[in-house]
Amino acid sequence: MWRLRWQTVGLAAVSLGLALETLGFVLGWLRRQRRRRRPPRREVLFFPSQVTCTEALLQVQRQGGPQAAAAAAAAGPEARRAPGAALAAAPPAPGAALAAAPSGCLCPLPHGESSLSRLLQYVLSARSSLELCLFAFSNPQLGRAVHLLHQQGVRVRVVTDCDYMALNGSQIGRLRKAGIQVRHDQGAGYMHHKFAIVDKKMLITGSLNWTTQAIQNNRENVLIVEDEEYVRLFLEEFERIWEEFNPVNYTFFPQRK
Amino acid sequence: MWRLRWQTVGLAAVSLGLALETLGFVLGWLRRQRRRRRPPRREVLFFPSQVTCTEALLQVQRQGGPQAAAAAAAAGPEARRAPGAALAAAPPAPGAALAAAPSGCLCPLPHGESSLSRLLQYVLSARSSLELCLFAFSNPQLGRAVHLLHQQGVRVRVVTDCDYMALNGSQIGRLRKAGIQVRHDQGAGYMHHKFAIVDKKMLITGSLNWTTQAIQNNRENVLIVEDEEYVRLFLEEFERIWEEFNPVNYTFFPQRK
């Protein structure tokens, strides 16, 4: 009698395991299919950006991780359009994230969309990896976004410029303290790129340094491109710089002659 | 007898005129067809660029105008490839311009291709218009290229930043003296774009300021994109800035309160 029961339990456990495995596989396949059907993202953001509250976006990310943010982004057809510069082919997502986000913030800032909020949404859409190659990085909202992604298991790597990383308000120290890998040059020319690669699929690049001064005051542009070839070339450039700026290559004392 | 002769001469003149008109039309049609068949240009240039001699490119442009440069660019299948970063879909032209150019230069610099020479070739391919929206512009080769295009009747318009236009080595003063229209901001934030639009068809944009320091020393990127939507958005941004920076809007003295 006992033997039979254990067999039943074992069989049930195996069936449950198989069912869960199958479910995971089917869900993954459905997600891949959906992603395949979605047209590639193409957008241009122009700055200066209106100053808007971005708490809602970061709250969504904190509460539910990349999945919740992605779900929020895909939630509603009420997605507001990009601020004046979206390409015809650009999909409405991730515009809906703000609408679907908790609206408890009572701060006096406007809570609509802006170039900054859209940039944040693209960065926050990372699920597995984020490569940042930034001359200057001091904007606190973008800093928090990158920090949150790191906490949620996204592999974040940062390359930056040695002259600007230690300036007042730089986010680099904070990110390093949080355990994010950062590499930098040693002063021969500037590391002047301003690009990010999300999940090895989306390229974010342009003239914009990730500083509040630039975001709120400068004339700037940022292209969002989902194109295999462009992403591959920028990823190769990132890996070249990542290897070149490997700390084992740093020179700390002048060579004897 | 005289009347008959004049009639013959008149008829011949009219026929000649019609033939020339038809020839022009046919040539234009052929050129348009050829341009339609050519795949859109897509390339990424990474910097720092190797220091190479670019005299040959500027000589071609000086001797024969845009047509000669374009012909030289399309001349040979021996076109050397871009320096390591061309997209698969990028056409070999304008790589052949250097090969087809006069090779009389005896300077000690290498005479091959570089990211700078490719950038120059794309700029020099302008035939009707060139919009420049540049934070800083001090590279003499690019300055000469823009000057030459202006001399050959290309409509050049420049928008730049007021803080950087008067620095040592800036090309802005030279271009203004040559009669090129330049407009600038009045100090509220930087005009930090770094893009050019060639013939309202090709967008050149990235992190690169057009300075020799950046070209030779910095890690930089420049995208070359022939895409109607991207070009339209950047052209709209240019026209917005062009109007906003119209000298009639400049404030020369503080307002009375």
Account of the protein in words:
The structure is a homodimer of 257-residue chains. Chain A contains eight helices and seven strands. Chain A is of the alpha/beta class and 257 residues long. A seven-stranded mixed β-sheet of chain A has the order 1-7-6-5-2-3-4, sandwiched between helices. In chain A, helix 2 packs across helix 5. At the A-B interface, strand 1, helix 7, strand 7 and helix 8 of A face strand 1, helix 7, strand 7 and helix 8 of B.
Please write out the topology.
Two copies of one chain form a homodimer.
Chain A: H1 2-37, E1 42-47, H2 55-73, H3 96-100, H4 115-124, E2 129-134, H5 140-151, E3 155-160, H6 172-177, E4 181-184, E5 194-198, E6 202-206, H7 212-217, E7 220-225, H8 228-244
Parallel strand pairs in A: 2-3, 3-4
Antiparallel strand pairs in A: 1-7, 2-5, 5-6, 6-7
User: Radius of gyration of chain A, rounded?
Assistant: 22 Å
Strand order within the widest sheet of chain A? 1-7-6-5-2-3-4
- Overall 3D shape of chain A: globular
Strand segment count of chain A: 7
Amount of beta strand of chain A: 5-15%
Total count of helical runs of at least 4 residues of chain A = 8
Largest sheet of chain A: 7 strands, mixed
> Overall mean pLDDT score of chain A?
84
**Low-confidence segments of chain A, ≥5 residues, pLDDT <50?**
73-84, 88-92
Would you list the SSEs of chain A in sequence order as H and E?
HEHHHEHEHEEEHEH
Oligomeric state of this protein? homodimer
Class by alpha and beta content of chain A: alpha/beta
What pair of chains forms the biggest interface? Answer: A-B, 37 and 37 residues
Distance between the termini of chain A: 86 Å
Helix content of chain A: 40-55%
